[in-house]
């Protein structure tokens, strides 16, 4: 029995050894595969980084060379020093000579490889050149390389100098365009009319040219502005706002939106609202007239405080502003021409100058609306009435 157990032990040990032996190569192979995959990933990353590094290194080297040799017309002419296998760029600004060179296969701005240099003529040596890269079919020739006198080309540039000059010129041009765009964006806006609040002068989807206000807006101007905080307050205090607050529903904010409205009153004007129509009271001695903006009634006047539609003050009593008879020096009263669809100063009160961007000047699209913006529905009246006199 002992011998039997010994045999079993030996067989078991042999089996274990075979099992271990079977797994060891497999584990080793997996480790090797992981190592190879890791090395390949690292190589791929390096391969991706190399082109970027090479581009920046080449550009830096070219800029350094160009800094030594100069840019543009001040660049050093390498015609006397170029050697075989150099890559050079011929340049010429004379139109007659430009055509003559092109007929001979010398195209300014194209990189050429120097194939041979004739040194027999010390005064006017010549070079054999061919393009350093394939050209378009209509520029290709069957007689490459072509021979040209060095002095026939006004300026020979080293490839590095030409590339650096091109890069700098491109950057300067791009910077110029970006600067112009930034300046225009600061003073000019192209605005799409979003709603019916300015009908009939402005229709929805009309495209309007707006210029930044340098001079203060005048009565009758259509201004483009950011929504004042008083507008959000008025919406929050409306029936819809109060109902939403009671149900813990968030009302969409006007932040980020912009509006077009017509100026009814400017600083110093005595402004009020009568039967939904804003007016300015103008007096010369005892002779008083009302300049009325016949905007009409809002579609849902019950949504806002009754004072929005009838008051003798530009401000609206919301326990935030003190009631005054005249607009302050930085305040404007604005309203939509179509009061049926416009929430404006009638509801929120005067518009502060800090919210103004500029004045709408022209409708530029569609073509059937092209032209200056039509005047608003103003009338001058001796007294306030519900109908137009």
List the helices and strands and how they pair.
Elements: H1 2-69, E1 87-91, H2 95-103, E2 112-118, E3 126-131, E4 146-149, E5 155-158, H3 159-187, E6 188-192, E7 207-212, E8 222-225, H4 229-237, H5 239-246, E9 259-265, E10 270-274, E11 277-284, E12 287-293, E13 331-335, H6 345-348, E14 351-352, E15 356-365, E16 371-372, E17 378-381
Antiparallel strand pairs: 1-2, 1-5, 2-3, 3-4, 6-7, 7-15, 8-9, 8-15, 9-13, 10-11, 11-12, 12-17, 13-14, 15-16
Total helical segments: 6
Task: State the order of secondary-structure elements, H for helix, E for strand.
Answer: HEHEEEEHEEEHHEEEEEHEEEE
Share of residues in strands: 15-25%
Question: Which whole number gives the mean pLDDT?
Answer: 82
The whole-angstrom Rg is 40 Å
Distance between the termini: 131 Å
Could you describe the largest sheet, including whether it forms a barrel? 8 strands, antiparallel
Shape: elongated
> Based on helices, strands and strand pairing, what is the structural class?
alpha+beta
